[in-house]
Amino acid sequence: MKKETCKSGRNGFALSVIRTFSTIPKTPKAEILGKQLLRSGTSVGANYREAYRGRSRAEFIAKCGDSLRELEETAYWLELLVDAKIVASEALSALRQECDELISIFVAVVKRSKDIS
């Protein structure tokens, strides 16, 4: 994965999550789910940054795995926001698609990195 592509992808995703969080209703249930979304969605880039600066291939794979887990968790919170009828599906469709695309990318990165090891 090219450094520039991944950097813009992870930063762009985090910014999209932040923007989405600001549009979530201010009810107690919505705020709990929104904060979970914010935490998991913004940690993807931080974990990838640690992976990129990793001292070994094993550390790189582990941190990319952490990013993948955070993306899967983010997908869960997005689904829950829609299923609980807190946010309309249409309002989250672009972010959900971006999350799915990043999951595919990180699955491929982890798989290829393990194959090389």
Task: Identify the notable features of this structure and list them briefly.
mainly alpha, 0% strand, single chain, 4 helices, elongated, 117 residues
Helix content: over 70%
Number of strands: 0
Radius of gyration: 15 Å
Give the end-to-end Cα distance, rounded to a whole number of Å.
17 Å
Uncertain stretches of 5 or more adjacent residues: none
Query: So how many helices?
Result: 4
Order of helices and strands, N to C?
HHHH
Question: What's this entry about, in short?
Answer:
This protein has four helices and no strands. The protein has 117 residues and is an all-alpha fold.
Characterization of the model:
This protein is an all-alpha fold. 86% of the residues lie in helices and 0% in strands. It is built from four helices and no strands. The chain has helices spanning 3-23, 28-52, 57-83, 89-116. Helix 3 runs antiparallel to helix 4. The longest helix has 28 residues, at 89-116. It starts with a helix and ends with a helix. The relative contact order is 0.16. The mean pLDDT is 92.
Record the SSE blueprint.
Elements: H1 3-23, H2 28-52, H3 57-83, H4 89-116
Helix pairs in contact: 1-2, 1-4, 2-3, 3-4
